[in-house]
Structure formats: C-alpha cells, structure tokens
Amino acid sequence: MGHVVHKFGGSSLADAKKIQNIANIISGINETVVVSAIGKTTRMLQQSIDAALKVQAYDVSLKQILSIHLDIIEKLGIQKNHLDAILREDIEQISQMLKTISLTKICAEPLKHFILGFGELWSARVLNAYLNSQSIHSEFIDASDVLYVDDSSFPVSVDWEKSQSLLNASLENRETKVHIITGFIAQNLEGQRTILGMNCSDYSAAIFAKLLQAKKLIIWTDVAGVYSANPQVVPEARQLQRLSYKEALELAYFGASVVHPLTINPMMEEEIPIYIKSSFDPQNAGTIITHPLKEPSKAKYWIKGLTSTADVAIMRLQGAGIIGVSGIAAKVFSILEQHGISVMMISQSSSEYSICFAIHSKMANKAVRALEKGFKAEIDKGDIEHIYCDKGYALITAVGDGMRSQPGALSKVIKPLADAKVNIHAITQGSSERSITVTVHESDEALALKLIHAQAKNAPVIELAIGIIGVGNVGKVLIEQMQNQYLSLLEKNLRIRVVCMMNSKRFIQGENLLLDNWHEALQSPEKKANLALMSQSLLNTPVAQKVIIDASANLEVSEHYLEFLDNGIHVVTPNKHANTQSMEYYRELRQVALDNNVSFKYETNVCAGLPLVNTLQTIQLCGDTINKIQGVFSGTLSFIFNQMNQGKTFVDSLMLAYEKGYTEPDPREDLSGMDVARKVVCLAREIGLSIELSDIDVQNLTPKALQDVPLAKFLKEIKHYDQEVTDGLLAIKQKAKALHFIGEIDAKGKISVGVQACENTSPFAGLSNADNMVLIYSDYYCHSPMVITGAGAGAEVTAAGAFGDVLSLVNRM
Ligand code: ADP
Ligand code: MG
To answer: How far apart, in Å, are the Cα atoms of 366 and each of 110, 336, 373, 374?
Structure first.
C-alpha cells in the first residue's frame, strides 16, 4: 500500500476532543501527518509580536497560548512526556525575545519567523505524544531539520535535492511507520528556522507528499471539501466532488482559503491526487483534486467555483503620455516587482489611456511611492497626469474548466450584478480562460458572490416580469416577501422582476424594482399613476411571462382586468371586486384569459392564503363534484362568536374585537355580513352556480335603528342593544355547543348567510381566535368533508397567497 500524507489544519487540532478524533482517522500504517499549530496559535503569536512592537502587554497572548496547550495536555493525559516543561521553557524564551522587541521596537523578519514557528513544534509534539499513548507507534519530526528553503523572497523556493537527502537520512534509521511532521516551518540557507509563508502548512504537506512519493495527500479541515463558494458566505454553496488541479489552483489563488495555492503545483507535477475532507465528518467523501476527467458534454454548472479576496486596492496610471508608448506597462510592473509588490489582476483597457491593476491594500502606499519615484520624469512633463489609488475593493473570481467553451460566460458573471445594480469597477478574463474576475466594492462582496452563485447553472433561467398595483398593507408585505425570496428563486432558475409599480397617485418603472429603493422612488415618481402605463411597461419588457398583481381594493382597477388579460398579461389579485360583479363580467374574464392563454388567479379572494379556491378548482378539474360548502369566512365574526361562546355578551365581544383592531374601522361593515356574502358568491360561482350578490339573503347583525346613523352614534349607542341582540342570538343557540356566522352553499343553489348553532360534533365548534374554517362536501370527500382552517386574514398570509399564485404561473410551486 502506498504512502499517505495527511494534513490537519488548526481547526482540526483546536481542542483535546478533536485531537483524540485524529487517532481514529490515522490507520497507523505507513502514514505521514503534517500539522498546523493548534487552533489560532500562530495568530496569537503574531498578536504578541504586534503588541511588543507597540510596547503593549505582549504576554497576554502568550499566557493564553500556554493555558490552551496545558489544558489540552491535561485532557489528553499526556503529562508524563514533560511537554508542559518544554512548553513553559519555550514561552519563557519567546517572552525574552518579545522583551527585546518591545525595548528596541524592532522585529527583524528572521526573528519574527522564528517566533511564529513555535506553534507547529508544540502541536506536532502533542499529537505525537497522544498517538503514542494510544499505541500508535509514531515519531515526531521537526521540519526545520529536514526541509531546506531559500527564504530570501516569498514564496520561498524549496531546495528539493538537499531536503530529499536529509529526509531520507532522517527516515533511514527509523522503524516507525507513522511520522508527525511540523507544517509551516523549514530551515533557510543560513541555517535558521524560518517559515514557508503564512497559512502554508498545506504547502508543507504537499512538499512532503512529493518527497515521500505519496499515493495521496489528504487535507483535513473544518469543511467537507471544496465548495462552489465559501459556505460561510454563500449558504447555498454545493460541495464539489471533483476539481481539476488547475481549477483548484485558480480558486485557491483568488482567495478560497480551503487549500493554499502553493499546494497544487507539486501535486500536479507528481500526479498525486489531493483529497479535501472534514475531520469532523470523515465518512464524507470530500473533494478530489486531480487531473480533469472527460467532463460530460453538458455540465450542469458552468462555474465550478466562486471565490473572493477582500482588502484590494485598485491603482490606475493615467495620462495622454501613456497612449502608444510601449514599455510603460512593462516599466510599471517591473517597478512593482522590484518592490516585492505582487499584482493580483491587470485590467484590460482598450484605450491605452490608462493602466489599471489591483494589489493588496496594505501594499498600496508603498506602490504609490514607488511609482511616483519611478515615473517622476513623466509626471513632471505631464505625460502622466495621475497615479490613482483606491482602497476598499474586493475581487470576485469565477472558475471553471468548462468556461473555456462557453460563449457568453462573461455576460453570465456580469448580468446578475448589473441587474442588481452592483457596480463593477474592473473586469478581467484570466489568460487561461478558466477564470473571470470582477472587481466590486468591498461592501458588495457577499451580495455579488450570492448573485453570481445563483446564476452558476447551465439550465436557462425563466424570467417573470411583474407589475404591482397598490402598495398598501398587502402590497408592501408582498414586495418584502419577494425581495427575501429573490435569491432562492433564482436558485430554482426563476428570476422575478418587478418592472413597474403604482399606487393611487404615482407610477414608477425599472429593470427590477425589487433590487432598488422602490419606496423612495415612489416618493418622486416618473409619472402620475395610470393603468395604461402598467400594461405598456410590461409589454415593453422582453420577457415571455408577465403578470399584474392588483393588491389594491379598488373597483376601477378591477374593471381593467379584461384589458390586461387581452394583452397576454396574467392577473393575480386579492381584490374581490372582479369576481363579485355581474355574472357576465365573471364569464368574460375567464373567456378572455382562455383565449389569450393566460391565467386569472385570485386564491386570496376568500380566506386570504388558505388554499381554498385553488383546491376547489383542482379537485373539480380532476372530476370531483362539490355538493356543499359551509364556512366561517369572516375572521372578525369568528372572533366575536368565539368570545360569545365563552360567555361574553354580544356588545362586549364586539367591542373587544374593535379595540384589538380586528374589525373594519366601521364595525358595521363586518356585522352587515356583506363581506361573507361576497366570499360566498365567489365560491358559489367557483362550483358552477350562476348567481349575483343581490340574490343572497344576508343576516345583518347591526340593529336596524343603527344601520344608517353616523359611526360615532353607532359606537355610542350600540350598548343599549346588547341585551336584545345577545338574547336573540342565544335563542338561536339553545342547547347547542356554539354559535357561528356561517355561509352555506349547496350545489342546487340554496345559499344562506347568517348565524347558525353548531352542535358538539360540528368542526365549527372547535374554532378559536379569529380563524376561518371551510368544510367541502363532495363526491370524493363524501364520508367526511375536507376541512380547511387557519388564519383567514392578515397582510402576511394574504401576500403569501398572492405570491403563491404568481409562482404557480411558472410552475415553481
Ligand atoms: P484549516 O485551519 O483547516 O487550514 P482554513 O480555515 O484554512 O482551515 O480553511 C477552511 C475554510 O475555508 C472553511 O472553513 C471555509 O470557511 C473557507 N473556504 C473559503 N472558500 C471555500 C470553498 N470554496 N470551499 C470550502 N471552504 C472554503
Ligand atoms: Mg488552511
């Protein structure tokens, strides 16, 4: 069996339990384990150096480091190895060095590297001691004894020959099959301990995998592999099963911290596969990085992975003198190279009027100084006007081998950002054509990642253009719900675009108002409200599916539905008016919708979001015959009668509902029963009855004498009628369990709207709060009715019901 090199990151060593877990992962035969420092040790060492340089208390971090390690040693039960003594000694030594740093306020690089390298020595010793205590015969190796590098510049270059012979010599006399090697550190040409570079333990592991001719390298970390984006930023990110070395390199180079970029090349040269796995979930297969397989001709995702780097500065050299002068760019980059400043991205500029590139923010000042010095003559002459430097940017990079053969890949990265009005400051396509990088403002980094991620699929995204009329209670909540769901729906290949909006006074339009500050725009509108503009705006949008949502309660708006439908625009509405006007209009709406192959959806006309209308339609389409519908359709009346059923009088119950805001501003609108009657008309028509609102006999709960008086008078005098109304209602109840205001429709056309007594066996007797309940008796549901119950009013459920209607138009339900 070939040799396996494991690498465990700091998070896999962060506490005793995690270290114990490593013993379960190591098989104990023919393995090398390369470790990072425990938890955040290296960072804390860096903090102690920083503190010393600022003459602050540097021993805080040291004490913390000591206590974390001592705690782990104790919990692992490995005290007898005198590790605590070694640790205390080392910390004391570091403390002395920090004292000098703090006195001189100087910390030379070699000293810094020496101090930073302690963490791996401790972690490797701790792991080794623990494995020994578990009868795994392992030995500790200090990489600075066997790994030689030239650290005169970073990244360091490995002296492969010398390292190979030293490692061979070191291993020759060992009998053990498992070696625990420190990551991160090495020895330099001067014979001092140094580091490979920050976060370079992955690289250490790759170097040892190459030197040992390993069969594979497994990098154990805190995520189950490489994801399509950093899962901490993009929760929807998918775990990738397989990546090519080149894809991994590009992802790592542009910021995916899950594997260090230097790790890839040696493994690619040696054809050693890299596995990225979670030490917390070892059963998970993780991600394999290897040579590319023949990809299926049509991969599902054209972007393999997305990554980002923050803390980027954009620099621009600009001036007429740059035009046509060859060699300026070469000079720029050679100056930067001389100063050890690496360029992360160069932006193409066809004008040649400017040269634009990105570097790490912390290098920005140095770069400006170097360029100003290097181009002093050109600046003095005015050939170069300016050297701009702007910090606070992030680079977002999309990577995928498949992008090479993808026409329009660039637009797929840019469009979602443009749609969302995220400003793009520079764009480059990697020369490998395997990556596209865009520069955005740092504050847009997470959003940009999410937006592009949602577009990473090859399957076409369906667009739905939406116009919203009425941004009151329901309209506002609906817009919020759409905004919240925008990205999730995009994941499901649906892009919802609100292209126009109006209230009673104003009209606005845009690419996608969901992503704009529509609220503000409505304050200073483009135009006065006008229904014709709504149709126009939708018709001008080059999208196949269009819908108008009427969230107003306006009669006039409902009279325009025919026109909308005739224009090929779906209509979705909670507005009851259209369905309760004449039977003739009712039939015409359906005919025109049918002729134009569009839908008229109004689930929320009855009982808000409860799935009543759509259910009736579906079961009838499936051949069922509805025989009877019975329901408590008014939330207000449901509340009032639930109170009465608990013993309150009528007026006390009414006033409680009024105070809680459950009634209309004028409670007589609820008491009149007309709201219930309208819903009953809707449902009666839904089951094929030809009926007008005026045909229905409705019980009005308002005493006759108060029906036409002003509201104030009603509110003042209603209490005088309490006894009379309460007694009248109780007479209906007699010995029954409960009273309710019930609308009832039977298929033969008998309709009633009024108070009924409900026996113990009636589902209505179990109602509470302001809930609605509807019983559907049909041929299919003959033994017991289908019961639909729940909140039948409220902005949230109404908006969600309308939203559901919208989604059903494009089969996204
Ligand atoms: P370790 O300490 O094990 O070396 P790192 O913190 O260096 O761990 O790397 C793992 C982290 O990399 C993950 O927790 C995750 O937040 C981050 N990461 C960034 N990009 C990706 C990605 N594309 N896939 C998976 N993880 C990623
Ligand atoms: Mg790492």
So the answer is: 22, 9, 11, 12
Cα 240 from Cα 237, distance rounded (Å)? 9
Per-residue tokens: 237: 């990110």
Question: What is the number of the ligand closest to the CA of 287?
Answer: 1
Amino acid at 600: F
Angle subtended by helix axes 445-454 and 409-419, to nearest 10? 120
Ligand 1: residues with CB < 6 A are: 9-12, 36, 221-223, 226-227, 229-232, 256-258, 305, 307
Residue in 230, 254, 397 to alter for ligand 1 test, most ligand atoms within 8 A of Cβ: 230
SS3 579: helix
Residue-level pLDDT at 525: 75
Residue 385 corresponds to which tokens in the numbers above? 């006007």
Mutation pick for ligand 1 pocket among 38, 223, 238, 263 (CB with most ligand atoms within 8 Å): 223
Q: Report the catalytic residues.
A: 679
Of ligand 1's listed atoms, the one at least distance from the Cα of 305 is: 23
Distance CA 329, CA 150 (A): 30
User: Which amino acid is present at 664?
Assistant: E
Domains and their CATH numbers in the chain: 4-222 (3.40.1160.10), 305-454 (3.30.2130.10), 462-608+801-811 (3.40.50.720), 613-793 (3.30.360.10)
The Cβ of residue 94 has, within 10 Å, a number of other Cβ atoms equal to: 22
pLDDT score of 526 more than 80: no
Kindly report whether the global pTM for this prediction surpasses the value 0.70.
no
CA proximity to 426, closest of 485, 344, 481:
344
Cis peptide before 110 (omega within 30 of 0): no
In whole angstroms, what is the distance from residue 278 CA to residue 248 CA?
17
CA distance 168 to 173: 9
Whether 371 contacts 317, CB under 8 Å: yes
Tell me the per-residue pLDDT of 313-332, one tens digit each, with 9 for 90 and over: 999 888 877 766 667 788 88
Q: How far is the CA of 312 from the centre of ligand 2 (A)?
A: 20
**Can you tell me the distance from the alpha carbon of 472 to that of 455, in angstroms, rounded to the nearest whole number?**
32
CA 94/CA 667 separation, integer angstroms: 79
pLDDT for 348 equals 56
Pairing of strands 31-35, 287-290: unpaired
The closest alpha carbon to 497, from 484, 510, 481, 478, belongs to 510
Coil, helix or strand for 455?
coil
Return the higher-pLDDT residue of 176 and 275.
275
b/e per residue, 735-769, with b = 16+ CB within 10 A? eeebbbbbbbbbbeeebbbbbbbbeeebbbbebee
Ligand 1 nearest-atom number relative to CA 276? 25
Helix (H, G, I), strand (E, B) or coil at 811: coil
Instruction: State the distance from the centre of ligand 1 to the C-alpha of 390, rounded, in angstroms.
Output: 28
Overall average pLDDT of the 493-520 stretch: 92
CA of 149 to the centre of ligand 2 (A): 21
pLDDT digits (tens, 9 = 90+) for 239-263: 999 999 999 999 999 889 999 999 9
Average pLDDT over residues 291-305: 69
For atom 4 of ligand 1, which residue has the closest CA?
A: 9
The protein residue whose alpha carbon is closest to atom 2 in ligand 1 is 9
- Ligand 2 centre to CA of 255 (Å) is 11
DSSP SS3 for 34: strand
Question: pLDDT > 70: what percent of the chain?
Answer: 96
Q: Is residue 674 predicted with pLDDT exceeding 90? A: yes
What 3-state DSSP class applies to 355? strand
Question: Average pLDDT over the chain, rounded to whole?
Answer: 92
What tokens were used for 609? 């979001």
Answer yes or no: are the C-beta atoms of 552 and 471 closer than 8 Å.
no
| Count of other CB atoms within 10 angstroms of residue 292 | 13
